[in-house]
Amino acid sequence: MTETDVEKLKLMVVDDEPDNLELLYRTFRRDFQVYKANHAMKALEILDKEGEMAVIISDQRMPEMNGTEFLSLTVERFPDTIRILLTGFTDVEDLVDAINSGQVFKYITKPWKPDRLKEIVEQAADAYQLVKKRTQELRRALRRESLFNAVTTAIRESLDYSSMLEKIVATIGQSFKTSYCLLRPVESNCLTADEFSYLDPQITYSCEFFDASFLIEQVLETQHYQHSLYNKNDNPCYQLAVPLIYQQHLLAVLALYETGRDQPWQDEDIQLITGVAEQAALALSQAKLYQRLQEKQQQIRAELEIARQIQNNLLRQSLPDIKGVKVQACCYPAREVGGDFFEVFVHPKGDLWLAVGDVSGKGVPAALFMASAISVLRRELSQETPAMPNMVIQNLNKALGDDLISSNCFITLILARYTPSTRELVYANAGHIYPLLWSRETDIDNPQYLKIRSIPLGILPKWQADFGQLFLAPKDILLFTSDGITEAMVTKKTCVPENSVNGFKSNHRSMLHLDGLWQLLQQETQPLSLNHLLARIQADNNIQEDDQTILSLEVF
């Protein structure tokens, strides 16, 4: 035991026999702060005044209130106190009652042996100190967990980086009951202009009353917590500044103030605050990264929107009005930009050139090849006498083939030349979906597929293939489409045999394919509207997986 009274544990002895009371006092007065009481009521008065005792030694047989009853009254108020019962008899029922109701640590029969009593009291003191230590550790752990949960909840409820900082400073300020709490973000070891603060509503001072600029500068230099105690306007003010560091990067400085406090925060409080600061630093780092990602995504979306407008402007914004024919075209990328394209070009000599192409993949890479393909195609078609469609495609492959092969991309393309004066159609197909041709004049079950086709561009260094040739008649309709149309997932009805229950039809999801597209075309009203056709397909196709392009040529 320590020699100073201040550090000695408190011990109370209660006995109605003066000799026993004095003996107990002299036995323990060197090692404990000993309090004497000659009856239970006097002992309760001492407890009211002096508070918790480490050990209480009480006689069982006392007037007015026995030892068991007295000890039981101390259990709820002082649960950590160690209780020892002195008894001059060995009544089993009294002992059991004392142990159960009074939570007695040991019982000792009279007369006792001084050495044995000292040994038991030392054990009791050790048990008390261990209980207090464990209780204090548990209290700290619960406080830490409660504070961490409060900070975590505040962080999760934050909508953005700024609101997170506001919630962190408010939660810490309220949890530690500070007068004022300030959080200053740091960028590249320099304070930013932003400030986030919490002020106790009961404080009459303004925020300007609290100034921790000196401590914050010290934290910036040392990256270690700083604290100080000073008087301002005769008011003691204690301030603490803590760095928020994650992976050796200083993210912010947290400053806490408390007025009217004449002693610094304890080491336990500082450790708890620094622990919360570490947790907050991790959350801030993640929030800052998320904010930067959001800003980057917003920038990318803005750039993609510009790219979408540019790509859309590459396509024909208006289609030519040519006597005897009607041309329609639609193109909808699956993302902001895509690899599908169409071209409608009227040559000065009167020929009408039609094309639908599809670059493999989606997004920006496909869009760049799409722009290159349109540029080269228009250059070829702008010649005084353009080559045959198959030779134009061959020239396209020569111009773009190396880049396509090195990028592991390819382009499918259908290109046709229509001469209005003769109604001749010449076409070449580089791996694209078969064009559909049908007539409003004749009632047919299936359309004609133009099946002359070769490999896509970008597969081989040299592309070559034959061209197809035919003559169209009035009321003929020619349709070009990309695989985003034929591979769209739609709901199809399957007929159930007549002998099945109730004869219901079952629905299932599958690709549209050319056959399904033809069925939809047969259901379309006159005149044909590609926008209406696409709207029907997209209405049944909740997610557009691929770019969708369709072009039609109607002959009158």
- Categorize the overall geometry: elongated
Tell me the count of domains.
Answer: 3
* Overall pLDDT: 87
Task: Provide the CATH topology of the largest domain.
Answer: Phosphatase 2c, domain 1
Q: Count up the helices.
A: 13
The CATH homologous superfamily of the largest domain is named PPM-type phosphatase domain
SSE-based structural type:
alpha+beta
Radius of gyration: 45 Å
Determine the oligomeric state from the structure.
single chain
Question: Approximately how much beta-strand content do the residues carry?
Answer: 25-35%
Biggest sheet architecture: 6 strands, antiparallel
Under the CATH scheme, which class of the largest domain?
Alpha Beta
Alpha carbon gap, first and last residue: 114 Å
Question: Residue ranges: pLDDT <50 for 5 or more in a row?
Answer: 1-5
Helical fraction equals 25-40%
CATH architecture descriptor name of the largest domain: 4-Layer Sandwich
The number of strands is: 23
GO molecular function: kinase activity; phosphatase activity
Modified residues (4-aspartylphosphate): 59
Keywords: Hydrolase, Kinase, Phosphoprotein, Transferase
Protein name: Protein serine/threonine phosphatase with GAF(S) sensor(S)
Short description:
The chain has 556 residues and is α+β, with helices and mostly antiparallel strands. The protein has helices at residues 18-28, 40-50, 67-75, 92-102, 114-156, 161-175, 213-222, 267-314, 363-381, 389-406, 483-486, 513-523, 530-539; strands spanning 9-14, 32-37, 55-59, 82-87, 104-109, 180-187, 190-191, 196-199, 226-232, 235-246, 249-259, 325-332, 340-346, 352-359, 411-419, 424-430, 436-439, 448-449, 468-471, 476-481, 489-494, 506-511, 548-555.
